[in-house]
Amino acid sequence: NKQVVLKNFVEGFPKETDMEVKTSSISLKVEEGSNAVVVKNLYLSCDPYMRNRMTFSENPEFASYIKGSPIQGYGVGKVVNSGHPEFKKGDLVWGTTGWEEYSLIKNPQVLFKIHHTDVPLSYYTGILGMPGITAWAGFYEICTPKKGEYVYISAASGAVGQLVGQFAKLMGCYVVGSAGSKEKVELLKNKFGFDDAFNYKEEKDLNAALKRCFPEGIDIYFENVGGKMLDAVLLNMRVRGRIAACGMISQYNLTQPEGVYNLMNVVYKRIRIEGILVFDFFHQYSKFSETVLPLIRAGKVVYVEDIAEGLENAPGALVGLFSGRNVGKQVVVVAKE
Ligand code: NDP
Question: Which residue puts its alpha carbon closest to atom 28 of ligand 1?
Fold first, then answer.
C-alpha cells in the first residue's frame, strides 16, 4: 500500500520533503462485527487547510497530522470491503480518506455515497465536494446576495473562487476576481464569465486596482486571501457590505500574521464580516447537489481542474497551492476505477 506520510511538522512554507512516499502492507479485510470500510482511493484533493494540519498543534478541534502516518484529506474512492450496513462492495464514495492506495476507514460517517456518475468522478473532490459546498453556502447564505450587486473574489480561479464567481453571475451580480497569473486572469474572463479580473501580483497598489474595477465600491467580498488584500478591500466596501471570511491563504505560512489596519471601515460602513466553516453545511449536501448537478449538466456552470498523476506527485501538488502553481482545483489521480 503506497502512502504519502508526514515526515516533519512544518514551519513557514511547506516543502515536498516534509512528506515522503512509503510502502506498507494493509489487510483489505474488515474484522467480524466492525463497522469499518476499506476504500480503494481514486482521486485525492489538495486543499489549503491541510497546511494548518501539518503544523504541530494540541488543539483537539483541529488535530495535526501524525508524523509517519498518511496525510488525511478529502478524496473519492471505491468500497472494496465493508462491515457497514450502508456501504457495500463497489459503492463509490467521497469524504475523508488517507493519502494512500487503500484506506481502512473505521468511521464511515465521514463518507458520502456518490449517486450520480454522469459527471467526472473527480468533481467530488471539487465542485461536488467540499469546495463546492463552501462556495455555495458561503455565497448564498453568508453573502446574502442581491441582483445587481458588486462582487469581488480573491484567489478567484481556484477550487472555491471559480464557483463563487459563476454563482454570482447567475444571480445577476457584477463580478470581478483577482488571481496570480495572466493565464488565470484570462480564465476568469473568458471561461468563467467574470465581468473583469486583474493579476494582483502586477498591481503596485491594490487599493487603486480595486478603485479602478469598482468605482462605486464593493457590496460583497468573498475573502480567500487575507492580509494586504483584506486591508485594500476594507477601503473599498460600500455601506452595508458583506464579507464572507472563507480563508486567508496569504497568512498560513507566516510565523507572525500580518496586521489589518483599516478595520474602522467596518464601523463607518456598517459592514458585516462573517466566517464560514464548511462543516456547518454538510447536512445540506443533498440540497446543494440537487442545485448544482443540473447547472453542471446544462453547462451553466463549468469547472477547471488541475490534475496531478500518481501519489508520487501528491506532495508537489499540495505544496504548489502556496505558490499558485495550480490552475483550478488541484486533484491527484491515484487510480482509475
Ligand atoms: P485554490 O484552489 O484557490 O488554491 C490556492 C490559491 O491561492 C493558489 O492557487 C493561489 O492562486 C492563491 N494563493 C496562494 N498563496 C497566496 C498568497 N500568499 N496571496 C494570495 N493568493 C495566494 O484553493 P481553494 O479554492 O481550495 O481555497 C481558497 C480559500 O478558501 C483558501 O483560503 C482556503 O483555506 C479556503 N477554504 C475555506 C473553507 C472553509 O470551510 N472555511 C473550505 C475550503 C476552502 P493565485 O495564483 O491566484 O495566487
Answer: 224
